[in-house]
Amino acid sequence: MAKTKEINHKERSHALLSASAANRWLACTPSARLEDEKPDSTSVFAEEGTLAHEIAELKLTKYFHPMAKSTFTRRLNKFKKRELYQDEMLKHTETYLDYIKELTINLEQQPYAAIEKQVDFSHIAPEGFGTADCIIVADQTLYVNDFKYGKGIPVSAEDNPQMKLYALGAYTAYSLLFDIQKVHMSIVQPRLDNISEFEMTVSDLLAWGDEIKPIAEKAFKGEGEFVPGEHCKFCKLKATCRARADQFTALDDFGGKKPPELSNAEVGQVLEKAKSIESWVKALKDYALKESLKGKEIPGWKAVAGRGSRGYVDVDKAFKQLKEAGIDEALLYERTPLTVPKLEKELGAKQYRELLEEPGHVQKSPGKPTLAPAKDKRMAVTNEVSAEEDFK
Ligand code: SF4
């Protein structure tokens, strides 16, 4: 389908000013150099994500370029043998593939596609480069697509600096070969049902690049002010950063000569800070545990063994023995009905409607009022009942 094939099998590596950390070093310029001094850490989740990306890469390659079915199956089977492989990876990578298919199916021109392509944006951020999951060029548009396997928080493509840096790198690489007027950026997070898209003109993208260039240069030199905020969440200094700690300890300012009770405005401010305090305290606890386990002292705290657990060595063997000993099966298993959302997922929307919703087996009740940030999409509710409604 596509004109050329370009796959980058280079190990994923990171620049000092990486695109994925751009929201951090753009807001807090000294963070990049300081993070660079800390060792890299990986997690099972990150490794799962890498495997899911490899499967997605294989599927997209097969979609854009001719590949024998036997080659595809052999490569997929190799992934299936990996320790972290889970069947659900097939489903989620399929959602991503479906999105890319939908994106390309109505294009007037035959698309050019590059998968897992290393893009260089060092003309904006010194030594900056990154790996874009899927770049497509067609119909005067540069499509930059990002597949995120995580299921932590939904990420928006709107004005997303990571996406814009990839786009700047891709534009530099392809603008001599193709006429590009527009940039379309998308983030696909199948495990969160999140597909976010954002579009901008090339001139706006280039203007943004010029705007951040001096900030990137400052970040590269490790200069500027520490600015704590939402972006601290994934910073390697998130636990021990003084600027972050100062931000929270400044809550004491509410004392002094002010009235003994907080005003509603102050309650709002404290809750705003509390959103980040929770994750900061968790980061501090994780850090203190690691230090304690290394034998270092954190005054007032120590590491202890957590509550142990018991499990079957081989559940089949154990239950076989119980049954042979005459223990009634009813005693061994619990039978609980699936919840409505789970059953809907199992049955599919149509059957769920026909068998459960339409005959009146499902009752909907409003959720208990809960506090949410003002930007939450749900409508605000109050306990106030209007006189008219009361009368009715
Ligand atoms: S924790 Fe926040 S304030 Fe501190 S260096 Fe990292 S990004 Fe900057």
Report on this model:
- The chain has helices spanning 22-27, 31-37, 44-64, 69-80, 88-105, 161-174, 202-221, 242-249, 264-293, 315-324, 329-332, 340-347, 349-357, 387-391, and strands at 112-120, 129-138, 141-147, 182-189, 194-201.
- The chain has 392 residues and is an alpha+beta fold.
- A five-stranded mixed sheet has the order 1-2-3-4-5.
- α3 (44-64) packs antiparallel against α4.
- The radius of gyration is 26 Å and the shape is globular.
- Mean pLDDT is 89; it is low at 1-12.
- Iron/sulfur cluster is lined by residues 24, 28, 31, 34, 226, 228, 231-232, 235, 237-238, 241, 243-244.
- Iron/sulfur cluster (SF4) is lined by residues 24, 28, 31, 34, 226, 228, 231-232, 235, 237-238, 241, 243-244.
Lay out the secondary structure.
Elements lengths: L21 H6 L3 H7 L6 H21 L4 H12 L7 H18 L6 E9 L8 E10 L2 E7 L13 H14 L7 E8 L4 E8 H20 L20 H8 L14 H30 L21 H10 L4 H4 L7 H8 L1 H9 L29 H5 L1
The protein binds iron/sulfur cluster.
Pfam family, one: DUF2800
InterPro entries: DUF2800 (IPR021229), PDDEXK-like_dom_sf (IPR011604)
Organism: Oceanobacillus neutriphilus
| Cα shape | globular
The CATH topology of the largest domain is given as Lambda Exonuclease, Chain A
Bound molecules: iron/sulfur cluster
Distance between the termini: 64 Å
What is the number of helical segments per DSSP (H or I, 4+ residues)? 14
Mean pLDDT: 89
Which CATH class of the largest domain is shown?
A: Alpha Beta
- Could you tell me the number of beta strands? 5
Secondary structural class? alpha+beta
